Each structure stands twice: as structure tokens, then as C-alpha cells.
Records
---
Amino acid sequence: MDVDALYQRHREALLVFLVRRTADTEVALDLWAETFAQAVASQRRYRGRTDAEAAGWLYGIAKRQLALYYRRGHAEQRALSKLGLERPPASDALLREVEERAALVDLRRDLAEALSALSEPVRDAVRLRIVDELPYADVARSLRISEPAARARVSRGLAALAELLDPIAIREATAT
Amino acid sequence: MNLDAYMNDFGRELARADGKRRSRRRLTLALLPAVPAGAALALAVTVLPGGGDVDAVAAARDALAPAGQIVHMKVELRSSGTVVFPMEQWYATNPDRLRTRTQGPVVEGGSTTVETLTQGGRVRFYDARRDVVTELARRRSRRRPA
């Protein structure tokens, strides 16, 4: 398994995949970095031979990370810590570039229209974080809840809006 | 920094971490044959009657050994806060018997755990990775006539 070649082939597409399923560039970058760190840490368990199998294996890791995020409200950093790596901080300009590549503005507009399907506490959290793009600390302050609780509400809301984000991938992710 | 440069940076860090991981693994595999040999040597020096000085673990074991019972000890050697090769020992007297299990690192091909059984000047040595039992007997020393 050549993880470097896998990284070069899929780095951008995987990031877009994760941004479109979280509607949150910071969270997506965390999941993206952890996915590649997991690929490095667990490459000995890979049994495939073809490029397609390698891609399937990588996206399988990403979906597991997504599922954990939907359940817990935060991205894991286990493999990154194990390898002594940190996801580099991203500037505002870089986050905007990620949003553009993933066409996140359109997705945010669609999400804003679909918020009525959610319960009020979850809807408020999703609106503040995803539509108004407030940092989690401000979301928590506005809703008078802790930051982890704010993260959990947003991730639950996104999971509930799966039909918009990516029904098949999210159903697969949350089913594992 | 744009996204491509950001990804290039993280890719380099990832490749470096991968390289470090591979070198550590190569080192572990290179050292593996030394683990059973070292365990057998340490055992021969410290455990077999007349084999050498009694170490602190053996002294503690002797102090705890009531006749007719088995002393079970867990020994941990620490290096920079990390447990290196944790060992368990079972010891009984009359006749003296000692069994040890030393847990080595898990590598491709399975566990590198090593077990030894010492009784009556003989050592049975089990290498879990190779699934091989080796038996060693202590050579009797001949006394020169005065």
C-alpha cells in the first residue's frame, strides 16, 4: 500500500466529499486529516490490490469517521495523535477556498430551506453554525449550552438532514 | 497559503510520519531474535542454581515463597514511562519450579510472547511467534581435584 500515492490521488476529492457531508469546512478538514492518518496507521490491514479497492478502503475509513462525528459531535484525532501529527490551522482565506471548491454556498442555501424539518433546539444550532457560520463557542453562548452540546446538536441536525447532504453515504455511515 | 500548498504541507508531514513508522517497524523486526535469546540468558544467569547473582526480583520472590504455595508476580520494566516487555512469573518450591511469560511486541506473524519453565536444572523455552519449544539443560561443573 502506497499511502502517499493514495493521498495524492484522492486528497482533494475526499475533502470535497467530507465538506459536502458536514457543511462545515473546519470539521471536514479535521475528518480529512484523521482519515489519512488512519490510512497510514492501519495500512498493514489493507488487503486490496487495485486502485479502486484502495479508494474504497480510504472512503470506508472516511465514512467511519463521519459516522463517529454524527454520533459524537466532534472529529476523532486518535490516529493523528498516534502519529504525532496535527492538522495545520487553516486561514479564513483557505476556508473560503475550500467552500468554493465544494460549492458550499449552494448547499448552505438548500440547508437553510430545509431547517423546518428539525426540532427547535437542533434547528437553532444548525442555523447559527452552518447558515450564519458562527464559531461553536458563539453558538454555545447564544443557546446557553456548553460547546460540546452545541457540536452534538449540529451534528445531529446534519444527520437528520441527510436527504439533502448525501442520503446514501450518510445512511451507510450512520449504519456502521 | 492556498489549498494546494496546504495539502502539499500536510502530505509531507504524513509521508514523514509514515517513514518513521516503517523504520520503527524495521527496527522491531531486527531486534526480535534478540528478545528470546536475552530472556533465556537472563533466566540462565539469575534463576538456574549456581548460575550467578540473585537479582532483586528473585530475592523478592524468595521472600514471598511459602512452602506448598505458588507465588505469582507481575514484573514491569519501565523505560521513559513506557512498560518494556512486561513479565509474569509463577514460582513454587520443593522442588523449585519457575515459569515466566514475557510479552514482546505484536508484529506481523503474531505475538512475540516468550514462555519459560525451569525445573531441576532444565529450562523449557517456548517462542510463540515461531511456535517452537526448546529445551536447555544446565551443564554440570566439574570440580578439579585439590
---
Amino acid sequence: VDYPRTVTELTERLREGGYLADRGLATTMLVSLSLRRPVLLEGEVGVGKTEIAKVLASVFGRKLIRLQCYEGINTGQALYEWDYARQMLQIRALSQAEVTDERSVDKLFGPKFLLERPLLEAVKKGDQAVLLIDEIDRADDEFEAFLLEVLSDFQISIPEIGTVKAESSPVVILTSNRTRELHDALRRRCLYHWIGYPTEAREAQIVAIREPQAAEQLTRKVVRAVHRLRELDMVKPPGVAETIDWVRTLDVLGETELTQETAGDTLGAVVKDRDDLDLVRDSLAEIIAGA
Amino acid sequence: VREQSPTQQDPFTSVLIGFAHELRSAGIKVGTDDVLTYFKSMTPLDPTDLVDLYWAGKTTLLSRHEDIATYDLAFKKYFLDEDAPAKTQLMLRPQSVAEAEAALVMPGTEPDSADSDEEPPVLGWMASNVDALKHRSFTACTPEELAALRRIMQRMRLTPPRRRTRRTKTRPAAKGTHPDLRATIRASMRMHGEPPGQLFFQKRKTKLRPLILILDVSGSMADYSRHLLQFAHTAKHAAARVEVFVFGTRLTRITRELTHERVDVALEEAARTVVDWDGGTRIGDSIDTFIRKWGRNGLCRGGVVVICSDGLDRGDPDVLALAMERLARLCHRIVWLNPHKGDNRDFQPSTLGMMVAAPHIDLLLSGHDLASLEELAEMLPALS
């Protein structure tokens, strides 16, 4: 399946996959797909940074390869590792059978003993993969520098085997929550897009796509209430993911209406901080009344 | 690059280049290859559609969130305004102009800038009584003495405490808990497959904790903070990750401005960023802003936060108390430098702000003279 060539077409295909991309995000993704440049996505928590990669992969039949970054991640976890335990067993087996020919030694460093990690897998799959490098800001500086190298030419050299090079580079999406400043070099290698909160109408559409069975009235009211919540001075304002969660929660409980009582009972789906909870409970009546 | 850039410029090319110039003069770093990417990005898009021009430029020419507002203004100026340069050169589709106008939500001026001058500084007289301090405090130094102090400070290094990371290093050892098979096998290969004489083990590395300086630069503290800013600059050059914030009525991050090599340039630039220089103090609100915008995202997680302020807070004490409590939960240790403490060992905080903040402070120092800053540099590594 080829990637689309116009913004409209791409938006439409993503929509079929359950993702409503606005014009800005769709443009960024289209440019990324046609120039084969990685995209760096930043934005509020829970606005669908990771989701876009998943949907992109599923809609266009690509394999989603996810590299979740964390502190201390190293090349052994991101690139490849030899299966040392198996190699040692093999060596023992070989020496007991007194096999000493060269080929059996070569096999020790063949594909059978190579554990592919996400980056190597993505380079091998090339065009057939969507590589999601999630929360890059959690990895340390050193890893970022290494990643830069891989992203620049999609080429990985393994001393025992040789160089693996992607025939056509995979689609690469990086996400960051801005817990630390990323290096300019990495930023410059990527296209950049900031995903903000959607407008009320758009968010209602998003929820309708994700939770089609929920009552329309309920969806509309919940979205309006969430938008009111975002205006409050909250420590952790609810993202789109929370809106969807709230609608789902209410729907599971069989509610078709957002009342002060039902909202109060299910507030835990949207408000995830004690201070925020106090703040919201104080003005719950207003929030619901306006919705 | 040279091959691809057209020698004969068509109007479209010169408009895009002109726009890049506009962005540069607005202070956004735009490289030549960024502009080239902008060109290339137009291939799948429609160059006569202003909305496409807008979004493609945004994704190819920008690389950080802070620049978005500047970009929007520059775009408006260059493509949409009455005398916009692009209007005369490009035949833009009229309906796309209308669409772009609608799509662009123009940011107003900084939301906080309006109220920063509302209240005149009234606390100067309370804080100016610092002559009672016994040691030669920074405020009492002659310019020559200050220059000498500066030179000494440049040599001082702030070293934050260390913590264990998840990163490991490998070493040959007789015993250990996590054997490193990769290194062991590699060593064995070098011996032509003989079992290596020694096993390799992995050991967790340690790493300096991040250091976050939050400096008060309001009226009563301006003099001290100028020197502390100098100190902050030397800290930035140490190996650790250092973040620097300054506050008065509001909080500003100046880490990026401090990356300049020369101290004076960095200081001048920082002074420009902190528009509320010599204004009033709102410690509680400032720390609250810090937590909301940076702390919550993990900037100070596991780090040492050094706050320098006299605790003369004009905001609500409850806000400060709550903010300090949250800050204490987010970071590893809080150090508070209060120049009014001076050399007094039995210093009792007298300002309301200090009293409210006291329960959450791990270490209270003065920071009013060089000796006390040395004390800070000395005690910092032990705060693990």
C-alpha cells in the first residue's frame, strides 16, 4: 500500500483508522512521508502523540516498531544483542561432538544467535515499518547522540556480520514530553510539530469516532465539561485521552446524561491529582451546569 | 546544496527565501538546509495555498515550541498584512488567504506582562538595612573588590550530589552480582576462544544530580542575585546538568541564555529576558509556575533545587506553602539561600515567607558573601 500524496487523502485515511488529524498534523505527516524525514512530536499529555504512529501503521499495513526510551537504555537494548547463553551452549555442544570446522564457528555469529532489537528491526524492514521512538526525553544524552547517527543514514554496522542498511528508510516518529531539552542537532534532523488541545467541536468528533456507542448528548456534555476543566488552574489538566476515558466510564455505567451526581462519582477518570480534585469539587455545579 | 538552489530565482523561490529572512530577523534560528527542506516539502503540497505554506513552514523551519508565537507573527507580517511583501510577488488563491486568516489565531502580548508593573516596589526600605551584616557582603564591596571576587568565583565549581543510574559500566572482577556476558565472551575471543582468566561484571554508574537554581532578582534581592547569576554561570559550566530560573513578580527560565561563553554577555542577555528586573516579589506564584511548567514535567526530579531569596513575599502565604510542599515532593533536596541570614548561626527566619517555607527546606545558608558561597559549594556534594 502506498502512502497518499495529498493532505486531504491522508486525513481521510487516518480518519478511517480512527484518528482525527487537523490540517497542521496532516501536513507535517505528509511532508514526512514524502521527504522521509523523521517527525518530532511534542505536546500536552494525552493528546495522541503516540496514537498517530499506531494508526499510521495499521492503516497503511506497516509494522509498528516501538522503542520505548528510559533512563539507561543502551545499544544492547535498542540495536541488537548476541544471545550469549545460546552461544555458550552451542560451543559446549560443538566441543563435545569435536566439531571444529570453520562453518560451525561462523554459525555462532549468524542470524540464529542475533537478537534483533527495535532499531535494527526497523532498518531491516525499511519502508515496511513505522518506527515509534517514544519519550525520547527519558533517555540520556549519550543515547540521543547515538540515535542521531542511526537516524541520519539508517545504517547499522555489526562487526561480526557487516553493515545493515535500509533500502528505503522507515517512517520515524519521535515523541517527547519535554522533561529535558533535546539537542539542537536532533531537532534539526526532524520535522517538528506541536500537538495542542483540540477545539470543542473537534474533540467531540474524536470521542464520537473512538466511542461510537456512547450517547451523543453525553459526549457533547462531557467534552464541554472537560473544556471548562482545562480553563481551571489545574496541576494536571485532562487530555483527550481523559475525555475518552470519562465518556467510556459513564457509558459503561449506563449513563446517557452528565449530571452533577454522576460526574462526581466518576471524576477519577479525568482528574488525577488530589489538589485538582478539591479544586474541581468546589466548582463542580458550575462546570456541569454550563455543559 | 549549491546544485539544488536555483540561480535564476522565480518569484516563489524568492518569497520563501524572503520569509526565511523574516524569521531570522525575528530571532528564530533558520538554517539553509531548513529552507531547502521547506522547498522540498512543497512538492506534495500546493504552493499557492497559504494554509499549506503556513503549516509546511511551521513544521520544517521551527524546532521548538517557544518559537511558535514568533513564527505566527512573522507569517502574518510577511504573507497577510496590508503591505505584506509576499502579496505583491505571489498570486495567492484568494480563498486560501481567508482560510489562513481564520486558521491563524494570533497570540496577544505576553499574558503576564500587563500586571507586572501594577504594583510599585514598596519593600526596598525593609531589605536595604543589610549593612548590619558582619562580613563584607556583596553589597558593601567596591567595584575592584567585586571584580576580584568574580575571578575567584569563576574558578569555583558547584558539584551536586551523585545518584546511582540505571546505566552500567563493565569491569573485570573476582566477584560481582551481574556478570557481563558480552564483555566476557569478547575477552574470550581475543584469547582465541580460551576461557577468560577473569569474568567481567556490570556495575551501576553514578551520575551527578541535576541542579536547579531559582534566583530572586526583585528590588530587595537584585544586588545579591547579580552575583549569584555569576555563580550560576560557573555552575552551568560544571559537568552537571544545570537549569537556571530567575523570578520577581513572575518566573523566567534563562538556562538557554546562559549558554554563551562570556559571562557578561550571558548576564546582559539574562537581564533582558527578565523583564521584571527590580520589580516586586511573588515567591509563591513563581515557584508554583515553576512546578506547573517545568517541575511537573520532571525537570527537577531527583535534583537539588537552590532557591535564593529573602522570603519577602508579597503574594498569598498559602500559595507559597502549597508550592513548597509540592516542590519538596518533586525534587530531591531544597537549599535556600537567604542573604539576610548573614553569618548568624542562630538565624531565625522572620519574614512570613521564610517561616512558611521553612519546614520544606533541607539546608538554609546565607549566600551574602564569598565565604558563604564557598560553604554552599562545599556542602552541596554531601546532600545525597
